[in-house]
Amino acid sequence: MSENLIEVRGLRTQFGSHVVHDGLDLDLRRGEILGVVGGSGTGKSVLLRTIVGLNPPAAGTVRVFGQDVTALHGAAREALERRWGVMFQGGALFSSLTVRENVEVPLRAVPGLSPETRAGLAELKVSMAGLPWNANDKYPSDLSGGMRKRAGLARALALDPEIVFLDEPTAGLDPIGADAFDRLIVELRDAMDLSVFLVTHDLDTLHACCDRVAVLAEKRVLVTGTMAEMLKVDHPWVHEYFHGPRARAAIATGRSKE
Ligand SMILES: Nc1ncnc2c1ncn2[C@@H]1O[C@H](COP(=O)(O)OP(=O)(O)OP(=O)(O)O)[C@@H](O)[C@H]1O
């Protein structure tokens, strides 16, 4: 059985009296691309933010690489954070920095890197994210939405992470751009031995990339499994999502892993 890099157990998250998650369990296995889906507002982004320690849970445990995220502080916490990269929705780039400088931000935490080495490493990640050489000196405002997402991905890869968190990477992309991004995710997973936590609404992405899917509903992970297993789940939202017209269109494109 493969090792779990992330283990969430009995998670409760809430804002005031608004309970977002209650009794949520989730695993991310080493080497897999896990798609996290659910209706709008079911707490996919909050779950991502909670796992990376940006949102303290009200109850439950979040273990990443076997360590309790909420219990670590200082240097131990920073060391853990260096083992993952996050691509937030919209890229979350610094608008006053060029693409290269944005990717250099996480590298500044690495002691002993000369400015030239840091710039070289950043340029390598920009290239791995599929951006042309001349993108390095551009500002986020000079880039298309798809290029901004690739720049956000390059920054997430800056420290050679073991886990990458992607929040709706294909949202807002045209179908060709989204297709290319899906392929890039799989290529990078294979090339860099990544494990990927991927929040998405995009059924094409689930078909093209994901080894397993976790469905958020009723404040928890209602079901986890392969796409084939999702088709057999007898729950109204899950059935509608995986059998609706968009699901049929995604299957018809023939990009399915299976
Ligand atoms: N900082 C916050 N303060 C208060 N409520 C919040 C905060 N962040 C998120 N929420 C609420 O938590 C719920 C889940 O939000 P979240 O963004 O995780 O949903 P989502 O499943 O990612 O939605 P979508 O698919 O629309 O992006 C929403 O009702 C949202 O309003």
Largest sheet: 6 strands, mixed
Distance between the termini: 21 Å
CATH superfamily of the domain at 1-83 and 197-257: P-loop containing nucleotide triphosphate hydrolases
Count of runs of 4 or more consecutive helical residues: 10
How many runs of DSSP E, i.e. beta strands? Answer: 10
By CATH, the architecture of the domain at 1-83 and 197-257 is named: 3-Layer(aba) Sandwich
Secondary structure class reads alpha/beta
- Beta percentage is 15-25%
CATH classification, class level of the domain at 1-83 and 197-257? Alpha Beta
Radius of gyration using CA atoms only: 18 Å
The hetero molecules present are: adenosine-5'-triphosphate
**Major sheet: arrangement of strands:** 6-7-8-3-9-10
CATH topology of the domain at 1-83 and 197-257: Rossmann fold
Helix content: 25-40%
Query: What is the mean predicted local confidence, pLDDT?
Result: 90
General form: globular
* Unreliably modeled segments: none
